[in-house]
Amino acid sequence: MFDRSIKIAPSILSADFANFGQEIRAVEAQGADWIHVDVMDGHFVPNLTLGPPLCAAIRPHISTVMDVHLMISPVDAYIDAFAEAGSDIITAHLEAGPHTHRTLQAIRGAGCKAGLALNPGTGIEDIAYMLDMIDLICVMSVNPGFGGQKFIHSQVEKVRNLRAMIGDRPIHIEIDGGMTPETAPLMAAAGADVLVAGSAVFRGGSVSDPAPYGENIRAIRAAAEAARSGS
Ligand code: DX5
Ligand code: ZN
User: Does 147 carry a binding-site annotation?
Assistant: First the structure.
């Protein structure tokens, strides 16, 4: 069921890599709505993370939504593997290749929801003829590749324009990068509904002391919801 309520999606990029299963169960118990999985190839972005086998391994620990963000190029050859690993949403980058339309077809064809991510320097014009094929647009508010970077403010206006372009279509607007209780309200007011947060969720906590995860999630959600009701 589609809705525009605020959803917090912790990025496991900031979790303990030796403990993904426990970390995921901990953030879900503490209020996470989705689990965001960052896949990097050392080519499209200057960092390497994980692939389909790890997604398959963590899938049984996720009871919400497995939101897989592919920062890889090329993409198409790997879509079936990420779908078979249990992804609910697969997001590819507009900048990852010349055939985004085909990539979105392949993601839905593999039985997943199709996401499209835009780097901070990319405009929204090029997606106009693909809106009926997209379930989620991910606006990168940092340059992809690393957690813990500074929020890029110019992306607020992009989200506002994107929200107007989407109209009544059932497309989520997800923000990825630099989300904190200070920046999340700007994006929520501009029209975002899914807020990815890595460092701002995992800071201060651990699997043996997960309460800070809950405090961090509640702080981001409260700030975002307050900005919504004020807009
Ligand atoms: C960046 C990743 C993000 C990142 C967010 O390339 O796509 O999901 O982990 O981390 P924070 O919330 O720390 O900016
Ligand atoms: Zn991401």
Answer: yes
